[in-house]
Automatic annotation (TrEMBL):
Species classification: Bacteria, Bacillati, Bacillota, Bacilli, Bacillales
Domain VOC per the UniProt entry, residue ranges: 10-126, 168-282
Name recorded for this polypeptide: Glyoxalase
Coiled coil: none
Amino acid sequence: MNFHQKPTTFVANVTINVTDIKRSTEFYQHVIGFQVLSQTENEAQLTADGKTALLTLVQPENVSRKQPRTTGLYHFAILLPSRQSLASIVPHLVNQGVQLGSSDHLVSEALYFADPDGNGIEIYRDRLPEEWTWNEGSVEMAVDPLDFEDLLTKENVLPWTGLPENTVMGHIHLHVDDLQAAENFYTQGLDFEVVTRYGHQAIFIADNKYHHHIGLNVWNGIGAPRPAAHTAGLVHYTLIVQDADKQKRFAEQLGALGARVEWNNDVLITEDPAGNEIHIRS
């Protein structure tokens, strides 16, 4: 099962506001290893394979710094194709002076840091699905220490040459203001399944039994406000769905929930109850 291609519903692109497009483009190129797919004065589309934009940077007019304790982006997660590619980026990030967090989630091994505007970034590799443990519809995940000694063996660490071309946007993790409202929206409107719960603090949802395509949490507070327009942070993210029929069915389900439903040509635009905007394409 490829969890990041049709017929699975998956996150394909994340678009964020930044305060300095030149600084951010250089960061994502030189520190993370993206290539620039296209660029204008205030927007840059970034790619790993030279064809598909995984991340879009926008510098709006009168942009302001990221606001604390709002809904919006917690992190977006870049999925590398192998453990070797994860191991190989570690020395590079350390040499660039990046302050790294890390974790072993049982289903994956992950690094955490932030861009110059404080937008959260995860870079991770998945363990094989047959190594994941499922129990009554829930996948077992943890926040264990990452075993760097085991990861950074001579065999694993290869010369760093940027992101491998089969890198994808693995998932997105969002701050919301009401966990139950978010769960209703994503499960009833977009057919995701809850695959893990962390008490009343966070849920992880997926399609086709991935460990999660979207994380949702209330760590910024129940009832957290939405960020003001034109602040650094999430603009929208893009979901790819199987076909136009599923896209239309989602529009009907979202409409029945009272959610925003707009069409821009063949793109369905909605937003979750916390104001996180979603573009749905087939």
